[in-house]
Amino acid sequence: MGKSKKHSGVLTRTYSWKVVVGAFVLGYICSAIILYSMNTESSKTPSKQPSASQPAPTPTASPLAALQARTQTHPDDPASWAQLGHYYFDTHQFQPAIQAYEKSLSLNRANPSVLVDCGVMYRRIKNPQQAVKLFQEALVLQPDHLTALYNLGIVFHFDLQDSAQARTAWSRLLELNPQAKGPGNQTLRDFMDTMELE
Question: What is the predicted pLDDT for the residue at 14?
Fold first, then answer.
């Protein structure tokens, strides 16, 4: 293959350029053979055509279309409306998310997670008062709802400049989860300590 040389106690191997080029060409040829055999095998396999008794497959509907269709076929199902709201939430479509969440809540007001998600959307459209109402309503239903406590503190601190109310919400959160993260991915306890310095 190549020549071995010994330099100051270290054994090194030098390869001839012919070996390197030969290996490259061999790899190229093997790849071409494999690809050719894969293509000829797949062309020999007959393609399945739908028979008269089998309908042709329909294209998959988009997730949004499927969720919208579900709310049309099940208009009284709060979970369908909540799922549509989640889609809009995840795609940053705040007003449609609010409409879907509000519809879900009109059918079942006892879902604290939907109340919180709807509250987050109200915060995104700059309506912090409505966000606070929804977070507080969620906490009446589930006093240990960590996300509601966190977001309540966020809105009080950043939007309503009410650090005392933020501290109350976050202190409760820390009682439930001492390792809770705060804004900027620092611990919530550390963030609250910086609030005291302001």
Answer: 41
